[in-house]
TrEMBL record:
<dbReference type="Pfam" id="PF13379">
    <property type="entry name" value="NMT1_2"/>
</dbReference>
<keyword id="KW-0732">Signal</keyword>
<comment type="similarity">
    <text>Belongs to the bacterial solute-binding protein SsuA/TauA family.</text>
</comment>
<protein>
    <submittedName>
        <fullName>ABC transporter substrate-binding protein</fullName>
    </submittedName>
</protein>
């Protein structure tokens, strides 16, 4: 075989190999990494864990890294400093950032929970029908000043004609993590608690849930996914995929049984008994705490600011269209089944 023939064969071989490579299976596309910072680890955020455990983020080509950044201030600091891309935190924090004059506003783009998540717990079993006026003259163990739980709590008390500063002894100087143990040890006649602590106290016979602050304070964007405007501007496709994954999780949670939801999120709560998880999921599902879509409507936004204003934590009302962007949630609701 002469050199010319050999050259032709090599050329044909090279062309064929390139054609086979081009027609063969493509290399899996690399996933886009998104760093989420959640304000706390809570069963209240069940749809987020469902989106991860059921692979809905992965289906959208996203590789999410979830970290817990305890407290709204720490979560917002991580977001503003670039330590995380997306924050799951109360919408009031975006208003606080605006009040401080940020040049890069924090935008709410997908709602996860639509009510307060705390409950009124009493030390003794309720005798007869509960009336909020029974709290007058009592010692009330509340939540942190300026936080959404405390604001929703005070809003509810005022709704029923109770002045939190005058009609009861209000205790607010106990760290969030220590509130349940403080109540168990004898502090307060009533306490405002998140789950699963409320259900756990009931199971232990050390407390009894008698009312829901979520039901009484109404619908509001209690917890939402948010990102800096600059991040959204350069990552619109990523934000849309993120909203799609959350919408699929919300659809799934809305139709799934309490047992199936509990199983889907159980790995995120390894130290919590399965019956406790089930009880908490049922309580939140029954009262409509899990948002069924990511849309934040203007009425919810105004209710949020009413709650903040009543607590004296709002310098001036924040424009709905400035801090809320529903375009991604709207598209997700239309396209995700």
């Amino acid at each position: 075989m002469n050199k010319k023939s050999l050259g032709i064969i090599l050329a044909v071989t090279l062309i064929l190999s390139l054609m086979i490579t081009a027609c063969g299976p493509k290399k899996a596309e690399e996933k886009t990494k998104v760093r989420i910072g959640e304000v706390t680890r809570s069963i209240f955020y069940a749809p987020q864990y469902v989106a991860i455990s059921k692979g809905f983020f992965a289906e959208q080509g996203l590789d999410v890294e979830l970290t817990t950044t305890p407290g709204g201030d720490k979560t917002m600091t991580a977001l503003l400093s670039g330590g995380i891309d997306v924050a799951l935190v109360g919408s009031e924090t975006s208003i606080y950032v605006q009040q401080q004059g940020s040049g890069d506003p924090v935008i709410n783009f997908s709602q996860l929970t639509q009510t307060d998540g705390t409950f009124l717990v009493t030390r003794k079993p309720l005798q007869g029908k509960f009336d909020w006026s029974q709290l007058k003259g009592s010692v009330f163990l509340g939540q942190r000043v300026g936080g959404m739980p405390q604001m929703a709590g005070e809003f509810t008390l005022k709704k029923f004609g109770i002045n939190p500063k005058q009609d009861l002894k209000l205790i607010q100087n106990i760290d969030f993590a220590n509130i349940p143990s403080a109540f168990v040890s004898g502090t307060g006649d009533y306490v405002q608690l998140f789950e699963p602590q409320a259900t756990m106290l009931e199971k232990e016979g050390k407390g009894y849930v008698i009312a829901s602050f979520g039901v009484e304070s109404g619908k509001l964007p209690y917890t939402a996914f948010m990102a800096k405007q600059s991040y959204i501007n350069k990552s619109k496709d990523t934000i849309q995929k993120f909203a799609n994954a959350i919408q699929k999780a919300q659809n799934w949670v809305a139709s799934a049984s309490v047992d199936d939801i509990s199983k889907a999120i159980s790995s995120y709560f390894p130290d919590t008994q399965s019956e406790i998880i089930q009880g908490v999921v049922k309580r939140y599902k029954d009262q409509g705490s899990f948002a069924t879509d990511g849309l934040i409507d203007e009425q919810e936004w105004n209710n949020l600011q009413d709650v903040m204003q009543a607590a004296g934590e709002l310098k001036q009302r924040a424009d709905y269209k400035t801090l809320v962007n529903n375009q991604f949630a709207e598209q997700a609701k239309k396209s995700v089944k």
